[in-house]
Design a protein that fits this description.
With 229 residues, the protein is α/β, with parallel strands linked by helices. The chain has one domain: Vaccinia Virus protein VP39 (Rossmann fold). Helices cover 21% and strands 31% of the residues. The strands form 2 sheets. It has a 7-stranded mixed β-sheet with strand order 7-6-5-8-9-11-10, with helices on both faces. A 4-stranded antiparallel β-sheet has the order 1-2-3-4, covered by helices on one side. A hairpin with an 8-residue loop joins β1 (5-10) and β2 (19-24). α1 runs parallel beside α2 (74-81). The longest helix is centred in the first third of the chain and has 13 residues, at 45-57. The N and C termini lie far apart (61 Å). The model has no long low-confidence stretch (mean pLDDT 92).
Length: 229
Amino acid sequence: MIPWLEVDRAAVPGGNAPAVLRQRGTDFEIRVGPHLLMSSQLHGSEEILAERITARLAGRPRGRLLVGGLGMGFTLAAALRGSSADARVVVAELIPAVVAWNRGPLAHLAGRPLDDARVTVMEADVVTLYDAPGGPWDAILLDVDNGPDGLTRAANSRLYTGMGLAAAHAALRPGGLLGVWSVDPDLEFTRRLKRAGFRVEEEVVRARRTKGGRHTLWLATRPHVLPAR
């Protein structure tokens, strides 16, 4: 069997273990410590998330999307495929090396989405961009870490707390969408989304669209009219 070879490694801000890019033949993976964060052979569910979101944004002029987590570019590429020519997509990636990898050895995997003129990349924690210029957002997609309860970096948990979800709610236009990807289901997270004021739909999809493990997607809508209290 062809062995895995380390291509590069980089520090994870606020983390204890580095992010390691490895290659075996034409396959790539990124690990943090013992955790597999992403693989070029295990994608599909994150693309479905982006497709669900952009389908609901169809017809909105000059859509503004914020994508948390660049990964290997598959989520971004799917968002671009479903977005209009006048859309603007901001991608927040915490690890600068991941951006460099997507411009280098990983660029071909998702079709070089960073070359799209609609894309702006920010090397930042996505939560710091919620109220940045460019918003309010029509959609926020969170493909960060392994989801609400599969964390490799403890600081990522704030995205999924009640306060983090309230911040996302405030950063969206009325009728805006929050899409969240997770490796595992999480009933309490569904409850937190509802308490934050979202209308929530939950969907379980296959990791590679038609096969592989099952991942959970949340499509959460900020209502046009706030519910009576």
